[in-house]
Amino acid sequence: MQPLNSPQKEAVETTEGPLLVLAGAGTGKTKVLTSRIAYIISNNLAYPSQILAVTFSNKAAKEMQNRINDITASDGLNIGTFHSISTRILRSHIHLLDNGMNRNFNIIDQDEQIKLVKNIALENNIDIKKYPPKLLHVIISKWKDQGVIPEKVSSSDTTTHESQLAYLIYQKYQKILQESNVADFGDLLLYCNQLLINNPEVLKYYQNKFKYILIDEYQDTNAVQYVWARMLASDHKNICCVGDDDQSIYSWRGAEVKNILRFEKDFPNAKVIKLEQNYRSSSHILEAASSIIRNNKNRHHKNLWTETQSQEKIKVISCWNEKEEARFVANQIGKYINSKQYSAGQIAILVRAGFQTRAFEEVFISNAMPYQIIGGLRFYERMEIRDLLAYIRLAINKNDNLAFERVINVPKRSIGNATLKKIKDKATDYSVSAFSALEKMIKNDEVKGKTKENLQLFVTLINQASLRYESESAFDVTKFILEKSGYLAALKEEKTEESRNRIENINEMLKAIDEAGNINEFVEHASLVMDNEILESDYGGTVKIMTFHASKGLEFDVVFLPGWEEGIFPHQKSMLEQGDKGLEEERRIAYVGVTRAKKELFITYAESRRIFAEILNSIPSRFLAEIPAEICHKISSSNQLNYLGSKHSFYFENNNTAATSPPTSSKLIPESQSNEKRPGNKINHEKFGDGIIIRKNGDSLDIVFEKCGLKTIKESYIKLI
Question: Are 610 and 514 in contact (CB under 8 A)?
Fold first, then answer.
């Protein structure tokens, strides 16, 4: 192990008082944490049992424990996640809360939580189709992450009808949990904080017990975790928080970057030590990451540096479309593997959104190249893709009983196991498929009431789709299935991060169907893709494909970052919902992605991208303009593949490069029409500011705005600049 550098050594040996260690990417934060704990024990400043080390995952806790054991004996060290430490405290003192619970409480998982929310909603005549239990559960979970108990929910928390219903359910939900002596994950910290606030003697006991407190990944703490840590450290103030505000990318699950930004206000006289020497990436890669992130206003300034000088510039590649983008990446990876310059296991592709993986998966499979999806399923294995495939399979082959069983009650049609068994039994009796048996049962009036009505709608849908697939485009018929089945509407009503991702995946599948043309060929192709085995032999592992979020903490010799286009990255939804705050988080995501690379970095974007059945011009990501031109090697893969060269330049103004001309439309416009508002023109809107027109629809324009992403605006409301 390398010796500690000066800032690392200072962080290890500064044991008394509050300490914030700002650890930039690849600067050795885990090494500092473990060395600090070992230093405290070896110098007899505390027994292991007097040290509390908090991590965000059991895996991180185990890794930290193993590293400490390699340095010094640490029996009795209190190391674990916020939830595991809180659970230990609650099991000893929960009787003091006076909520009827005892130390033998059980912890229920998310599925059980959502089921309970659903039951309460039904008992209170809440329409669960209009207000899905998942959505109501998300609202309740957010309140718990903010430390808000039912009695403290305010009028400002219930400004929407969904939140009003969630509040009603929250009260009953919490009462049922307490009466059942069970807790959900949010309760563990919520109850622990209540315990410490309402029982000063218990708080004093743990303040004395934990003489030194260390918290890893402090930038990822939510409100209730923040309060928990502050209370335990408020007496002796020997708290060391290690993190990097530039890597705070989990706001969607409650993390608040302001917790690390206000550390010095929370703990006056706190010492701040910056770890800026990077041991992972080459100098050009670090310069690119630093140049992007310094455009954020709300951050601690850091200047990452390395002794590893770059051999390679960053490659920025413009591609004709997303299919060529995937081919370019696969071709480059193939060259590396075949020349044995890098093995497959040393290479990663990081995407902003899960739907982007499909193009890469298909080109990897067609070229027999080994790949692995990290932190998720392969595209055609995802639930929504399998559901839609089952609908299609049933429509083109009504004898497909497996497809029938999968979708008969998806989305929910109140078709229970008893009804399904009757259908299957009838199919056996008649020696026909389940679908044919269902048609007979409806005709013979063997099902009644609402069940019959729902089943009739289902049968009609499949029959209509079956006929339409014979004469209409596969794309249109599949959209018809999605809309008439209620599947798409059900996802939209959930309004959760998960449902949004699923909708993006469905959009990507529709694109694949449109490209295939023939629905039978598409189904056959999808089946072959799903059956494809991951190849590892002779390649040195697999190329890892994952989202930016899943890549945090990992590193690779070569990293590809595709899809750097406005609307994809920075992501449209993030900016629409959160404005400048969302843009800053998108920039932090970019920083995380870039700093995963050790030796070589490729950033790609498509000049056009198929959205449903339309091919739209793309706008290069504003983040590209934030990288100094002198460390980039800009390439048009189109030129290499005998396509038209890139027409795009980086048009967003920034501190590193001068603004250049906006991208032009793929069609030549006569000079006489130069005053028209057309794709490629830069415009201004009174409310949203400057942007670029990417598409015209009648008297409306689709515009990518610099500050808030993609919006559709009436032509009369904008002016050319």
Answer: yes
Q: Which of 247, 248, 229, 252 is nearest to 239 (CA)?
A: 229
Q: What is the mean pLDDT of residues 306-312?
A: 88
Q: Which residues pair with 212 in a beta bridge?
A: 51
Question: What ranges in 124-160 are assigned the alpha helix state H?
Answer: 133-145
- DSSP output for 288-313: HHHHHHTT-SSS-----B-S---SSP
- For the ranges 153-157, 177-181, 545-549, which has the lowest average pLDDT? 153-157
pLDDT digits (tens, 9 = 90+) for 310-348: 889 999 999 989 999 999 999 999 999 999 999 999 999
Q: Is 338 exposed, middle or buried (0-12, 13-18, 19+ CB in 10 A)?
A: exposed
Nearest alpha carbon to residue 428 among 409, 401, 452, 398: 401
Q: Give residue 501's identity as a one-letter amino acid code.
A: N
Decide: 641 and 654 in contact? Cβ < 8 Å: no
Residues belonging to the active site: 29-30, 216-217, 247, 596
Q: Where are the beta strands (DSSP E) in 305-414?
A: 314-319, 347-351, 371-373
CB 80 within 8 A of CB 55: yes
Q: Looking at the whole model, is its pTM more than 0.85?
A: no
**DSSP annotation of 150:** G
Distances in Å between the Cα of 168 and the Cα atoms of 121, 145, 173, 187 are 9, 18, 9, 18
List domains and CATH numbers for the chain: 6-88+190-275 (3.40.50.300), 106-180 (1.10.10.160), 278-370+536-646 (3.40.50.300), 380-525 (1.10.486.10), 664-721 (2.30.30.30)
CA atoms lying within 13 Å on the CB side of residue 130: 8
Q: Could you tell me which residues are beta bridge partners of residue 600?
A: 558
Give the helix ranges, DSSP H, for 470-603.
Answer: 474-484, 487-494, 497-516, 519-531, 548-551, 572-578, 580-594
- Please choose, from the candidates 572, 114, 163, 162, the residue with its C-alpha nearest in 3D space to the C-alpha of residue 154: 163
CA distance 230 to 213: 10
Distance of CA 638 to the CA centre of its chain: 31
Report strand pairing: 700-705 vs 709-714.
antiparallel
Q: CA 350, 351, 352: angle at the middle one, nearest 5?
A: 130
Q: Is the peptide bond before 200 cis (omega within 30 degrees of 0)?
A: no
Q: Report pLDDT digits (tens) over 631-675.
A: 999 988 654 433 333 344 433 333 333 333 333 333 222 333 345
Give the CA distances from residue 302 to residues 279, 296, 464, in Å, rounded to whole numbers and listed in that order. Answer: 15, 12, 61
Strand blocks (E) in 211-259? 212-215, 239-243
Residue 268: what pLDDT?
Answer: 92
DSSP letter for 218, please: G
Q: Give the other-Cβ count within 10 Å of 516's Cβ.
A: 17
Q: Taking the CB of residue 118, how many other CB atoms lie within 10 A of it? A: 18
Could you tell me the pLDDT band of residue 537, with boundaries at 50, 70 and 90?
low
Give the separation between CA 121 and CA 168, rounded to whole angstroms. 9
Is residue 522 scored above 50 in pLDDT?
yes
State whether residue 622 is helix, strand or coil: helix
- How far is the C-alpha of 267 from the C-alpha of 258, rounded, in Å? 14
Q: Which amino acid is at 299?
A: R
